[in-house]
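User:
Hi there, any thoughts?
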Amino acid sequence: MGPEIVDRFIALAGGKDAEFVWIPTAADGDPKVDPASTFLAKAGARHVTVLHTRDPKVAGTEEFVRPLRTASGVWFVGGRQWRLADSYLNTRTHLELIKLLKRGGVIGGTSAGATILGSYMVRGAVSGNEVMMAPGHEISLGFLRNTAIDQHLITRHREKDLLQVIDRHKELLGIGLDESTAIVVKGDRFEVIGKSKVAIYDPKYKPAAGAERYYFLTPGTWFDLKKRHVISTSPK
């Protein structure tokens, strides 16, 4: 991630003196992270707490969620998104994350940490990340409602993978993020930032003859999530 993404995230959380929580639960093994090694600390954030468990009972305790009560920025690290769902879905941790957003905080993530922010969890199979729809692992944390978020889109040649998801779940909007690229969501709108592209998969989209069933947004573009169309000018 370039500084345009890192610096924006820190600024949205309130700046370098804000309180941040770093969640590495999606990573392989038993991640033990030094807060000083995180990109947040390296970018100047002074208060970074690492929060990790794979036990939903622990995730439901007051002691575990205490750092979230005062945090204004949370970052989910990449790995396997099903680990995040198994650990935090419908726990007190999940509730505190929702409260953080309601009080004006920001939540972001890389790779699996981006997918978990949507409502439908793609690539959630324990057996491998090639499976797009895995019964038992299809529910994400739902901070961005009615969406399915994929990642590494162009770099890993995944451009067509979300089509099968929106064909089966026509209420969803598919959002494909390439590497070094992010969307900044505010209310029902988002802005594309970074160096590459974001793909939109809308079941109601009607492409021209011979064109793909998805389309790309470039950095600087604003998109209306409710109306599902590009905003021609930046919102005030």
Observations:
- The chain has one domain: 3-231.
- The mean pLDDT is 97.
